[in-house]
Amino acid sequence: MASAFPKLPGFVPTQDIDKPNFRKVSSTKQEQNRDINHLPNKEYAVPRKQPIQIPPQTGMFNPDYMSTTHAMHLPKNVTNDSEELYQPSWVKMDRHVLRFSGYFKEAVVESALENYRIRKITICYYLEDHSLSITEPKQENSGVPQGAFLKRQKVLRADDSKTFILPQDFRINQDIIIYGKTIRLYDCDQYTREFYELQGIPQESSFVPQSDSFETKTMTKFIPQKDTVMKDYLEHKLGGGRVTSQKQFLENDRKVLKFYVFSDIEYILHYYLADDTIEIKEINSANSGRVPFPMMLRRQKLPRKFSLNQPGQTYAEDFIRPQDIQFGQPLIIYNRKFQINGCDQFTRSYYFEKFNVDFPLGGQEEYVQQERSNIIIPPHNGIGDEQDSLGYIYRLQPIPPKKDFFKWVDNQVNLRFLAMFNTTKPEDKDRVFVITFFLNDDSLLVYEPTVRNSGIPDGKFLEKRKYKNINNNNEFFTPNDLIVGNEAIINGWRFQLLDCDEFTKKWYAQNFK
To answer: How far, in Å, CA of 158 to CA of 36, rounded?
Structure first.
């Protein structure tokens, strides 16, 4: 920002008050100030040297020599110990970096969660030119910009000595001030420790920095404790889940124990061995005067007691098992007594083999209503598909007949035949037809080609649909009924099959040998 004050001594507020004079700097002094940037840096003893990177030798005329970009044109297999004596310091210290971990406190205002934030940073000090860079690891939902905290540059000390920060200024468990930020160093890597041990000033041991409210409340990952019992309960409540033992399900799938019980009226109790669930069905009979209701108790696990524990705290032994159902003993189901009167033959065999108990047979069977049909199916009138017409007889709202999808996809083949009327009428005996049989749905299409000056309209003679063969017990036509030289009666018309195309001949040769 340009200042409105005149550029005169005593009128510029940003100048040093104790400055005695304002003489210009001589050219000699300026030249000395310029040369200070070219002074060689101090060389340090490093723990290990960086390997020499030899550039690729592809495209060179002589692969035994290194690239001409090197200062010395020496063969790559020959080493020269005197080379290190004349290397500059920035080459010897190249890629030697000291790495420190530190943190500083930053005040947070207008926040009920925290009063300050501990910001952890990583400091990289480059021995090549005594420059440093600072990066801050990114935290999720931190609310502050993180990443590159300070670009690589030389940093002056905070003691007004006008000298740059050197390696001896970095000490573990001590503070260092960089551009007004007081940073406490708490750790460094192994290479940095080895470097300071060679210099005779080993670093202190590392410590764990304190954590702030943001890290403890928001960054600490919550590891939930797995509650398999609660998970199984919720899955079964939503209609899913699995049985406790897959072996039990595989061995007892579709095995059901059937009991005849009595409580005011007769009921049937089903016990499913696959998952230890129970259901109770009412026995509905004709003219009983009762509203037919299919289930008295839906399929579920039956607890021994009417009251259970909290969800997820009820164990398998708290439910009724097959050994708890005994003949003559009442079964308490939600404070209602059911008297066991008998079972079926499978249940009796199961109890005898499993528990060596002779469970008596007996009980009232379910009433099976006899299906009486007074429907008289009229003969097909020839309009439309017969299967489609039957849908209006069996249902008030008909359902379209199902087609064989795989047959439809796999048999996209048509068989074509040449035919004539088998008649003595002079006007019809010369008429020629093309009969097409569709293998995907066993339908037929009869087409009459154009004959000029015949006086008979050409085009479709019989529409495409399934026709019955009266010579084969009124079964629908199949490829076996269409043989060249035979007669086929289609919808009352007698056709004499004369010939077929080449594809049809090959198809019959492959499928009817």
So the answer is: 20
